[in-house]
C-alpha cells in the first residue's frame, strides 16, 4: 500500500495530466465496446434533446393499420387489394411507390381451387362444351391474384419492390443452388450499375449476403425496380444505421430507399465509391451520400413515429383522400397495425414502425441532412480530448477543493452544451464521452493526488509548527500551505524576547524537581499568551522565550499583537507571583524586549534538521532591549521602530536613547506602560519624566533633576527617575567630553 502512494506522491499534476490524456487518445482509437455504448447513448440523447425536425414533404406512408384491417379484413389481404392500391396511387400521380413487403410465395385462392375441381368433374363426366371451357378459363384468369397484382405493377411503371437478404450462412443451408440462382436473377434491378475503386478496395467491412428472398417471379419481374429492406440494430438494440450496400456474389446491391430515389429522380447514374479502407460514399446523380467504411448511413431521425404522414390504405383505395396528398411524391407501403409490423427501437421510441425508417433515410438524402462524422471530426475529437483534458489538469491544482468542483462542473457542462449545440445546428456528431471522461478522470486523479500530497504537507506543517503556533494559525496554514514559504525571506516582523531576572540565583534555592515544576508552570502560562495573539513561539532559550509576530502568516498588526502579548504576560506574572508567594516559592520577575523591522525568516538549518526562525540585526536588537531592562529596572522595553507602529494604541514613555553593543547608531527606547484606554493614572508622571528627559538631553542638569524628583512625588519607586537623578548629578560633577548628544552607550548585553 505504501509503495503505490509513494509513486503517486512522486508525480505531479502535469505528469498525471499528460499520462491520462495520452491514455485517453489511445483508448479513443481502440474504442472499447462499453465506451462506444456510452457514446451511442449520448448520441441518442442529443438527437432527442434537439427535438422534432420538419420533413421535406415529399415522402408519405400508406399503412396497413387497424382501420384498414377492420374495413378490408384480416391480414394478409388478397393481392387484388394491393393491385387496387397500386392502380389508385398511379391514378393519384404518385412518382414512386415502394413496398416494405415481400410476396415470396404465390397466393392460395379458394376460387381457383373450386374452378379447378369443376373443370376436373366436367372432364370426368365427358362434358366437352367449348363455352364451358372458355368460361372456366376466363374465371380462373380473373381469380389469379398474383397475376392481377403483377399486371397492375407493370402497368403503373412506378413500383419498387422490397426483398430481403439472408446474411447468415446457417440460414441458407436448406436452399438449393438452383433456387439461389433463380432468386438472384430477380434482384438485378437493385444492383449498383457502376463501382469506382480508388486503389484496391477493402470490402471486408461491407455486409455480405448468402441468398436473397424476393417476391415471386411474376411480381418481381413486373416491378420497375427493387431494393432490400434489411436492418441491423446496434448491440443495444437501437437502429442507428441504414446499410446502403450489401455484397452478394461479387456484386453490390442497394436498399429499397435508394430504389425509390432512383425512380423519383428518373433513374440517374448511381455510383458506389470504394477505397482501400472500404466504402467511400455513394453518388446518386448530383447527390453525394456519405457512409462509413461499411457502407452504412447514420440515420438522422427527425422525430418519433408518425413524423411522416400516415394514410390508411382503406382510405386510399376507397377514394376518401385528395390525390394532391400523393401527387409527385414517394409513397412507402408498409404495415403499422399492432401485431403485424416490424417493431424497431430508435433514439426517440422503443416502438417505431420499420416502414418509417425508409421514409427517414429517403428524407435525409433528399434534404442532404446527414449526420456528419468523418476524418476531420475525428481530428476535432482528438483535439478536444487533448485540449480540455489539459485545461482541466492545469486549472484544478490552482484552485481550492470547492472551487475545483465548480471548475470541473463548468468545464464539463460547457463542453456538453457546446457539443450538443454543434450537433443541433450543424448536424455534426462530435464525440462527447471521451473528452468528458478525460476531464472527469483528470479531475478525480488529480484530486486524489492532491489529497495525498496535501495531507502529507499538512502533516509536515502540523508536525513542524504544532509546538510553536496556536491551533488557529496552524489551521490557516493548512488551508493555504503556500503562505508558508520555506527558505529565507526578508519580511517586516516584530520579535519579542523575555527572560527571568536572576534565574541562576532562583535555581540555586530549589531542588531540580521544584525548579522544573516552577519553570514549566511559568513557560506554559507565557506560551499560552503568545498563542492567544497568534504569535510564533520561535524557541525556548533556557528560561527565556523568543516569539515572532507577522510570520509565517501575514499580520499587518504584528507590532500591536506583540505589545499586547507583553502586557498580558506581566499581568499574568503578577497572579503567579501571588500564588508562588503563598506556596513559599521564590519571587520571579521578568524583562521583555520588543523590536520591529526587516529580518530574514524561514527554515534555517541543514537537510536533516532545521527550524523555522528569524535572523538579523533587528532580532539582536530585541534581545539587547530585553537586557537593558536590568539597567533601568523596568519590565518592557520597545524600540522606536515598534513605537511608531503602536503609538496610537499603546501608551509609552521615552526612557532614553542608547547605543547598544554591536550597533553604531543610537536607538530610542520606550517603556511600554499600558494601552491608551488605561492612561489616566500614568499621564502626569510620564509628562514630567519627558520634561526632565528634555532637560537632560539639553544638558540642563539641575532642571532635569527637579523634574525627575517631581516624578518621584507621584511615583516614589520609579527606577528610571532615580537613575536619571543620579546620572544628572554625576554629569554635573564630571561634565561629558566633547559635544553632548544625550545618548547612553551600553557596554554590556
Characterise this structure.
This protein is of the alpha/beta class and 749 residues long. Helix content is 48%, strand content 19%. The longest helix has 33 residues. It is rod-shaped, with a radius of gyration of 51 Å. 36% of the residues are buried.
Question: How would you describe this structure in keywords?
Answer:
749 residues, 7-stranded mixed β-sheet, 9-stranded mixed β-sheet, single chain, 27 strands
Mean pLDDT: 88
Strand content: 15-25%
What's the Cα radius of gyration? 51 Å
> How much helicity do the residues have?
40-55%
Rounded to the nearest angstrom, the distance between the terminal CA atoms is: 56 Å
Which structural class do the helices and strands define?
A: alpha/beta
Number of strands: 27
Which helices and strands appear, and what pairs or packs with what?
Blueprint: H1 2-9, H2 13-30, H3 33-50, E1 59-64, H4 66-72, H5 79-92, E2 96-99, H6 110-124, H7 130-142, H8 145-156, E3 159-166, H9 177-185, E4 194-198, E5 207-208, E6 211-213, H10 217-222, E7 225-228, E8 241-243, E9 246-248, E10 251-253, H11 256-264, E11 270-275, E12 278-284, E13 287-289, E14 296-298, E15 310-312, H12 313-317, E16 330-335, E17 343-344, E18 352-353, H13 354-366, H14 375-395, H15 401-426, H16 433-465, H17 471-479, E19 489-500, H18 503-509, H19 512-532, E20 536-541, E21 544-549, H20 558-583, E22 590-605, E23 610-615, H21 617-632, E24 636-639, H22 640-646, E25 650-659, E26 667-675, H23 683-697, H24 701-714, H25 719-733, E27 743-745
Parallel strand pairs: 1-15, 1-16, 2-3, 2-16, 3-7, 4-11, 5-9, 22-24, 25-27
Antiparallel strand pairs: 3-6, 8-14, 9-10, 11-12, 12-13, 17-18, 19-21, 19-22, 20-21, 22-23, 24-26, 25-26
Helix pairs in contact: 2-14, 2-16, 5-8, 6-7, 11-13, 14-16, 15-16, 19-20, 23-24, 24-25
